[in-house]
């Protein structure tokens, strides 16, 4: 079982967290084509490597956080809240 | 009943673990046996001369004690209601009732053993071939197979056992308490790390516990006991015996089992020092009782003082085989002959054996054993000349090789590679927080084992942040590398060229060398395929005994090398774990409302709603419905999700999470809200009330509550910038619904601070008031279709308010009602229940809720999906129906029409809700129909318990279509 570090509570078993999926970019719903919207809903990059993803500290403080996890080794490189995300 | 005395014990020695002053009686297959405290079931039986412990899986051959280490399947017994107990590692307890398994009717007379006379009856891959046709006979086959192939019996009436779990957190965990593990634990402990050491035996020491040879002037068992004693002195070390680590998962999460307890361990660094399994040799009749592994014989002699024979033949391929022969001599056993597979065995030990006049055959193996029911003699074969020598014996000791117990290392991601230098599989590419030492890493010489242990201990401590001894680590690491390069094989495997009939590769599943050959000829020539087809290594030992032999046989018949053949995947658990240990204690959390005890006391039949306990009804749901329609009723709705939303950003958040409009909700008003997922699927519904300028109160369905809360939090925490503070008050507030034409009259008697008149407090509005000084929130909403008030109050006052309402309602005939009456009431009113009437694909248009979707809003969760769905139009609809003939279909019954299907029918819809309405006196429901069949008046066919019944679409709602009651 992997470990995740909640910015509020510290390092905890992943079983305390709810998975929120890969971080995706939401198209404007008023202008998105069907293909763009379907892509947003159903297509994931599923990278072999480090992926930023949403986790919610469900059984803890309720914080939503972003974890950068290596999808093969399950190593979690870092976790942070949305406001502290690296700027693109 | 014959009393069997504990016979055949050696004189007492300090290595023995039995207490001869304490005598324990137990029963095996109806006979009473006597054991000493400290005996295992197996040691006591061997002492009493028992040789057959079980009948084999397929051929029902007699099987005796083989490994005495808890690895092989031979000594599995039934103890009371527990099947598959390893008798060689299970201590005897007074009064224990032990039975042999898989014997019909008994160990000595087994009718099924005739199967071995008819080989073709159970060919290789018999799971996939035999018993298939004719299909009609399958029930008979199944009954036969279940009886013939079972391992023990399950008693469905047995009392559930007590199981629990414990969590542990350490810096360094050492799995295995042999010389490698002890050295590792000592090194890590001295570095200051918090250490846990787990060993699956009753005390640490590993194979040194049953070895007599001298180390540093002490017998091995004393030498290792000293090491263990030193470890006990450390306050930062915890030693767990009788504890088996069964799995290693991500980030060194280790599962271990001790008795009825599951240990969940998190460790910064993990040291695997789990030793090795001694493995059997392949030869004809290699499964006869009386054939034992060298380590098993040594355990019997030195731990329990039991000699398993009088005249022995020894087959050896390493130092320990020769030492075992010396142990036999010391125990008074006559050695008829010793076959040594190596050309140049260890000169020092050969000298000692020669001094005892042992007949030694070098470069010689065993060709076959023979005997009726037990080993009575063997044929040895020279590997040089093929010359055969025959000897009688009642014990055959086989000590010809090892396979590392490296499953945890494999699970950690290590890569297995065949090492031709030492004839064993070794692992590399371990993750940086996992270390291997000793025999688990295929190192067998004691001084090397101890050095590897010390190195692993220092490295693991260093990894966990307790470093410092850099020079020592560098020095030891170099030495370990050097010594590993110099290792010699301790394992010899010889595959004969002949067509031997009964040399068992896999004793769990009764797979012979011939059957493996046959499987390969049938095309199952890779190890993974071979394993699945022949079932080799898929039995209780999970390959511990057979895997290496199977790989060699596979390589042999494929004319490939072992390296080319490869190995199979090892998954957790390492050893079988009882379901009880995995299940643990039955700890199902239960949620109850503050009125729960009242419900129970007043005869409520309770039901589960998720974790909540709710009153289903109080005796007569129809009467409860009538009470609400005609007078007044009261239902506990505490499980509703309840949220406080405060801040100027609330309307914006509501606009996002709901599909309808929220910018213009006046203070004091309530609105119904519908939520969909980003895919446009109906997710939840509820109401939100505006209590004050910046203060809103939201309810959600009971089952949706926590998910909805998290979703809203995500909206607040993922950059949408709403200025909102959200609080989940589900558990802080009790809620009840007072419903029926007299509900206003009831409330009027006890409420203060609110004008209840229809004009002042109309439908879909909210008021704050007090009842006997207690603050309550009143929401005038109506799931039931009647005039009704949902009353929310701090949960501590819930029962008080509940009772006050019932008392006030007495004169109006108030009746408490449960979930069943509420379901009927809402169905009469045509209200849907999300996830009962909708499914994981339903959009609001199909569910007839287009009125709750405002597509011209700037944005909301699911907007684009609903735009597209709206454009596409609906192909199916949720509609109301009635049953003209009064049949009550079941929920989930299918709506069909003639077409292409298994019975000439096509499924075109289904029933989602149905009840007999006590109000309307007819059967009504909700169902899914294709759009073209969904107009009121259209009829359709429902398959109800195999019969075709007709339903008719009717407009919704069934009851009070103009909403006069709600607005009254
Ligand atoms: Zn937290």
Describe this structure in words.
Chain A is mainly beta and 88 residues long. Chain A has one domain: Folate-binding superfamily (Folate-binding fold). Chain A contains one helix and six strands; from the N terminus they run βββαβββ. In chain A, the strands form two sheets. In chain A, strands 3-4-5-6 form a four-stranded antiparallel β-sheet, with no helix packed on it. Chain A has a two-stranded antiparallel sheet with strand order 1-2. In chain A, β5 and β6 form a beta hairpin. Chain A is globular. The N and C termini of chain A lie far apart (31 Å). With 968 residues, chain B is an alpha+beta fold. Chain B folds into seven domains: 157 residues, 2Fe-2S iron-sulphur cluster binding domain, sarcosine oxidase, alpha subunit, N-terminal domain (Ubiquitin-like (UB roll)); 197 residues, 3-Layer(bba) Sandwich (FAD/NAD(P)-binding domain), CATH 3.50.50.60; 121 residues, 3-Layer(bba) Sandwich (FAD/NAD(P)-binding domain), CATH 3.50.50.60; 88 residues, Arc Repressor Mutant, subunit A (Orthogonal Bundle); 138 residues, Probable tRNA modification gtpase trme, domain 1 (Gyrase A, domain 2, 2-Layer Sandwich), CATH 3.30.1360; 87 residues, Aminomethyltransferase beta-barrel domains (Alpha-Beta Plaits), CATH 3.30.70.1400; 107 residues, Aminomethyltransferase beta-barrel domains (Elongation Factor Tu (Ef-tu), domain 3, Beta Barrel), CATH 2.40.30.110. In chain B, 24% of the residues lie in helices and 29% in strands. Chain B contains 24 helices and 51 strands. In chain B, the strands form 13 sheets. In chain B, strands 9, 10, 13, 14, 15, 16 and 29 form a seven-stranded mixed β-sheet that branches. In chain B, strands 41-42-43-44-40-34-45 form a seven-stranded mixed β-sheet. In chain B, strands 1-3-2-8-6-7 form a six-stranded mixed β-sheet, with helices on one face. In chain B, α4 runs parallel beside α5 and α4 packs parallel to α10. Chain B is elongated, with a radius of gyration of 38 Å. The N terminus of chain B is likely disordered. The complex binds zinc ion. Zinc ion binds next to loops of chain A.
